[in-house]
TrEMBL record:
GO terms for biological process: response to hydroperoxide. It comes from Leucothrix pacifica. Coiled coil: none annotated. This is UPF0246 protein DKW60_03650. One of its GO terms (cellular component) is cytosol. It comes from the Bacteria. It holds the Pfam family H2O2_YaaD. Belongs to the UPF0246 family.
């Protein structure tokens, strides 16, 4: 079983290196092609292309210029620890054992606009490049065209190694669109998280993002190898709902939490 997650805009590269083995992104040569394209963009062009502030455009201009290989523990950090945001607030990676990280390395992939399919312990340098960015490149007008079948091929190679060829999609729609579902050599299981209040059940983005991280954490810590084991997920009050689920889209529901008063 293989789990996919989205990356995070928020990143922390001041964290200490975890006591574990690290790796280098398998598609780093492809990242360099994108960096070569991005280095031709001035900050105002980056600001327009990415719809970000002037300060963020200047920051990312500097990041693209400073990007360099080889990656090492002085200039990069493992993806699972570097990403910070709603999804990753649900993953308590700081308390993972070495065995947890080894399992995560084999069962978790983070889909990235710059790096393709990342393993948790792959070293990355600071960047911002959302998958939806319309960056002209040698293969087309956007990142979906740039990555083509490459991310799907990478996932298929990993699915061949799993006890069960099941892709558990916990990524957002933006990032999951980089995967070609019809070409995935295995079952695809999509997961939704919903909140119920006053008889209405719906997806609330903030809660759903954190829940994706919590489920990834649950799968890693419990060494879940088959979809049936996912149905035991009960973190933060979520429960599997057979009534709301279908064969290939499972829904986990809970009462909507009350807002925390300040």
């Amino acid at each position: 079983m293989l789990v996919t997650l989205s990356p995070s805009k928020g990143q922390d590269f001041d964290i200490p290196m975890p006591d574990a083995e690290y790796s280098v992104p398998a598609q780093l040569d492809q990242s360099q092609i994108l960096i070569d394209e991005l280095r031709d963009y001035a900050p105002p062009q980056i600001e327009t292309m990415m719809s970000i502030s002037e300060n963020l455009a200047n920051l990312n201009f500097e990041r693209f210029q400073q990007f360099h290989t080889p990656f090492n523990t002085d200039n990069a950090r493992p993806a699972l620890f570097a990403f910070k945001g709603d999804v990753y607030s649900g993953i308590d990676s700081a308390t993972f054992s070495k065995d947890d990280l080894v399992y995560a390395q084999d069962h978790l992939r983070i889909l990235s606009g710059l790096y393709g399919a990342l393993r948790p312990m792959d070293l990355i340098q600071p960047y911002r490049l959302e998958m939806k960015t319309k960056l002209k490149n040698p293969r087309g007008a956007n990142l979906y065209e740039f990555w083509g079948n490459q991310i799907t091929d990478s996932l298929n190679a990993e699915l061949e190694k799993q006890q069960e060829a099941v892709l558990v999609n916990l990524a957002s729609n933006e990032y999951y669109k980089s995967v070609k579902p019809k070409q995935v050599n295995g079952r695809i299981l999509n997961i939704d998280f919903k909140e119920t209040k006053d008889g209405n059940t719906r997806i609330i983005a903030f809660y759903a993002k954190k829940a994706r991280g919590m489920m990834a954490d649950f799968i890693i810590r419990n060494r879940i190898e088959s979809p049936e084991g996912i149905q035991d997920f009960d973190t933060a009050g979520y429960q599997y709902s057979s009534a709301l689920s279908t064969k290939d889209k499972w829904v986990f529901e809970r009462p909507q939490p009350e807002p925390v008063s300040k």
